[in-house]
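Input for the complex:
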Amino acid sequence: MHVPDGFINAPTSVATGVVAAGALAVALRKAGDELDEKTAPMAGLVAAFIFATQMLNFPVGAGTSGHLLGGALAAVLVGPWTAILCMSTVLLVQSLLFADGGLTALGTNVTLMGIVTVAVGWGIVKIVTVVGPNSPKTVVAGAGLGALISVPAAAFAFVGLFEFGGTADIRLSTLMAAMVGWHVLIGVGEAVITALTVSSVLAVRPDLVYAARHLLSTRPLEIRTHTKPATS
Amino acid sequence: MTTESTSRVSPRSGPSTRTFAVIAVLVCLALAGLASYYASGHPDGLNKVAADQGLAAKEKSSVAADSPLAGYSTQDVSNDRLSGGIAGVVGVTVVLLGASGLAYVVRRRAASSEN
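Predicted:
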């Protein structure tokens, strides 16, 4: 979904640049709370995995392909604020080294693929893990559902931006149907890759999955409150 | 299913973080360096829509288009498999170092502001 230069006009690109910079500034502060001895090494690995997987376009029919965006996956593995940093790193490198996604469109791409997918994906994961039973399967299901919806959500956001600052005259309903339609299909691939990756990490090192920490911390916390009631 | 029992498994039962990281890096290098050759060459969702709706003509070439790795192929390497593979391996390395460095700096700054 990397937006090249020329699709979105200059004022809208400046606006998305401001949005992206603002979100990054907040993420740089808030990620400090997420990054501990476990998340810190994971951040680099998650970003590298998303970069690698984004190279693997899968066919979705009629001469069209899609690739993982990875926002939901990153949020589940390292937390939402660190996920924004991971996604932004990937998008910056892609833009500068590989000319994938325009440089003036970097703010747009960070907003769509680095912020919208993370926010939507993480929001859904939180809802599913709060509502669902306390089990690793719930985390996997939430990750898959979050991934599934995050992709058409990003497509929807692109159409919204295009309405403000698109450089071609395309009917809103036509663009919406085409963009959301294709990205629902791509979202299915996103959900499969995300669920497989999260369940693989859960199988070998469940403690490295940020969204599954509540499952592991339950028992030690109970013991502590019984043995040391006075400590805060 | 293995995931069934993981909630009861102690965090220390799996491979060490170092082993996990080494395997993860190897997986990333294999995906970007080898598997990427087999990726679909069709346009992605946005590019397809842009082509169908006449938006593709508005595309401007990126200032980074002259990068030796532009388009995930390595300049002056004619073998497709090698050209894409080098681009993938370089990309994974740069992203890994960049994001790890960023996480390190953010974590250190957060730790020092707490003390």
